[in-house]
Amino acid sequence: MIYSFRNSSFRDPETGVYNQTYFMEVFNREWHRHLREKQTLALLYLCPHIHETVKQPHLLELFTNQVSEALLRATDLIARLDSNHFALGLFNVDDQGAQVVLDRIDEQLSAFMMKHGNEHQFTMDYKVAAGICLPSEDLQIENLFNNVETLSSELDTARDTHQALIRVQ
């Protein structure tokens, strides 16, 4: 990816997706809008374990491009939180819609592995923790982030599953 000074304030230079600061600003704004309009939203943490990104740094960009293809709506966001985590924001979505996105992410990442795994000879496993909620005066935005982060940590230690969806209330 060619670095752009125009996008440096809101894009991650390595992957091209939004950075954490921009994601938090937009998610906070959407939280308040969904609170007013009484609409549900979802927060997803995606933790890819790609073991060859040191030798082949372009794999992260290919990975995020593949995940972005699972997000069909222009309002959905993907951002890099740190070197191991990505956050996705799904707005005005219900439980079924969130599950559809989780399934599409699985499909896209399977395609990613088929296309690039053998070609670049790397392995990858991933975990996706998702929390969906209806913002309310009683529910703080921090609770959603804390619950999804906790779920993500639990998934990291679980060997038998790679995704989970919870309802945060």
Write the layout of secondary structure elements.
Elements: E1 18-19, H1 20-37, E2 41-50, H2 58-70, E3 77-80, E4 86-91, H3 95-120, E5 124-133, H4 141-157, E6 163-167
Mean pLDDT: 88
Counted beta strands: 6
**Rounded to an integer, what's the Rg over CA atoms?**
16 Å
Q: How far apart, in Å, are the first and last alpha carbons?
A: 40 Å
Helix content percent band: 40-55%
What would you note in describing this structure?
The structure is a single chain. It is globular, with a radius of gyration of 16 Å. It has a six-stranded mixed sheet with strand order 1-3-4-2-5-6, sandwiched between helices. Helix 2 packs antiparallel against helix 3. The N terminus is likely disordered. The protein has four helices and six strands, in the order E-H-E-H-E-E-H-E-H-E. It is 44% helix and 22% strand. With 169 residues, the protein is α/β, with parallel strands linked by helices.
Brief description of this entry?
This protein is an alpha/beta fold. The chain contains four helices and six strands.
Question: Descriptors for this entry?
Answer:
44% helix, globular, six-stranded mixed beta sheet, 169 residues, disordered N terminus, alpha/beta, single chain
